[in-house]
Amino acid sequence: MLLLGSCLLLACAGATYQLIGTWRDARRFPQRGKSVQAGQIVLNLDCTGDRRPGMPTVVLESGLGIPALGWALTQPEIARFARVCSYDRAGYGWSDPGPEPRTSIEIARELRMLLDAADEPGPYVMVGHSFGGFNIRIFTSLYPADVTGVVLVEGSHEDEDQRMAGLLPAAVLEREARADLWNERINRIMRPIRIHLGILRLEVATGWGTPVYGVLQSPRLSKGLREELLYLRQQDKFDKAVAAEERAAPESVAEVRKARGLGHRPLIVLTAGNPLDPDPILTSEQMDKLKNLWIYDLQVQEAHLSTRGKQIIVPDSTHMLLIDRPGAVVSAIREVYSATAVRN
After folding, report:
1. What is the DSSP annotation of 282-320?
2. 104 within some domain
3. Cα separation of 62 and 77, whole Å?
4. Which of 344, 343, 340 is closest to 58 using CA atoms?
5. How many domains does the chain divide into?
6. pTM
7. 325 by DSSP, 3-state: which?
8. How do 41-48 and 83-88 pair as beta strands?
9. Which domain CATH number covers 120?
10. What does the pLDDT look like over 104-118, one tens digit per residue?
11. How far is residue 279's CA from residue 58's CA, in Å, rounded to a whole number?
12. CB within 8 A of 104, min separation 6: which ones?
C-alpha cells in the first residue's frame, strides 16, 4: 500500500508539473512567423531578411519530425545576406493538419500555395534536410522555372532502404524488423505516459535520460530552444502528422523516382561524416558498410542530379547536420545563392 501510494503521489506530482509547464510554455513561446491561408489549410510561414533585387529567396524544408524551429541556428545567419523562409508543414508547429495522403507531391503543392498566398515570389533556392530533400526535388520538378539552386542537407535517397537492406544478412534484417516493431509498440504506450506525467519535460529540462527524440537533448541547442521544440512536438497533431508522412513514404519514394533531375542548377549535397546512429544489433563491420554506402555511393548519386552538383562531407556531424554544424549549412547556402543571381 505504501509503494502504491508513493507511485500515485509521484504520478500526480508529474501530471501537475506537466500541466503547469504546458500552461507556462503557451505564454513563453509565441508563434514564430505568421499564419497564412494556403488553399484549404492554414500554414505557418516565417520569413526574415530583406529581398535583394535580382537575387532569389531561400526556402527551408525540414526533415521528418522537425518543425520550422529546427532551422533556428541557421535562419538568422542566412537572413544576413538573403531573404529566407522556413515553414511548418501541415500538422507541425503552428500549422493546421492537412489532407492525406501526406506525399511529397501534396507537400510541394501546399508549399507553393503558401508562398503564393504570402506574396513571397520566386525564384527560389530550395534547401531540404533529410525527408525534406524529397519534397524540394518534387517542388523543383513541378515548378522548374522558379528554382535556381538546390542544397540537400543529408537528403534522403529513394533507394536507401533497399540498398542498405541488401548489405545485411536475412537473419539480421529479421532481428531489426522485430526490434523496430517492439520499439514501436513500447513507444506507442510509453510516449503518452512520459508526456502526461512530465517525464519527458524533466529530461529535457535537466539533460537527464534519453528522450524519445534525441535532438531535444542536443548540447548545441540552448535549454530554451530544447524546451520550445518540446512544446511544439508533444502536441497530438504533430504525432499524427509524422505518422501520416511515414505511411505515405512509399508513395513519396515512387514520386521522387519519377521526378526529373535538377538540370544545370547549382547543387550542393552536404553529407555528415557520422550519419548513422549506433545500432546494437549490427556489428562494427556492418555499420561501416552502411556508412560507406551512404557517404560514397548514395550521396554521390544525389550530387550527380545536376551537372553543377558537388558533395561536401562534414566529418564531425551526425544526420542532424543543421544543428551539429549550422555554419557548414549556411556556407553551402551562401555559395549556391551567390551562384544563382538573376538578371533584372
Report:
1. S-HHHHHHHHHHIIIIIHHHHHTTEEEEEEEEETT--S-
2. yes
3. 17
4. 340
5. 1
6. 0.91
7. coil
8. antiparallel
9. 3.40.50.1820
10. 999 999 999 999 999
11. 35
12. 134, 135, 137, 138, 252, 255, 256
